Automatic annotation (TrEMBL):
Species, as recorded: Wolbachia endosymbiont of Tunga penetrans
Family annotation (CDD domains): FtsZ_type1
Name of the protein described by the UniProt record: Cell division protein FtsZ
Self-association state and partner proteins as the record states: Homodimer. Polymerizes to form a dynamic ring structure in a strictly GTP-dependent manner.
UniProt-listed GO biological process terms: division septum assembly
Amino acid sequence: AGALPEVGRIAAEESIDEIMEHIKDSHMLFITAGMGGGTGTGAAPVIAKAAREIKAAVKEKALREKKILTVGVVTKPFGFEGIRRMRTAELGLEELQKYVDTLIVIPNQNLFRIANEKTTFSDAFKLADNVLHIGIRGVTDLMVMPGLINLDFADIETVMSEMGKAMIG
């Protein structure tokens, strides 16, 4: 999207029927994005809003509430990506926060704490992707992996519904 959130937003809006079709039967939706560019920053809020609208539409038609627990798991730019990209990310986070139940933000810059002087830019972005994966896996494993504390979807929904913002890293 050429680092233009408006282009990402328009692309998501043009595909909204297809997006809705894919998420309509979901109980939980993870939206992952790298914030600060065009695609993730523009499209993520559109998708989250669509999940909220499914809830409203089902409630009106069926007189019951169907809610998609919507969790955003996003990264903020590295410092070397520039101030403009960081500002764009902050604006995107504000917009996304309006529509998700929980927003987990991973500041990429903090990944340099576990990197070293041999870490390439490519490796740094791979690290960021891995942390996104770990964030989502941490939530889903609570439901599907037996352990000391066994939780089901209802437990996760109770905790994460309207939780707000959380940070990893």
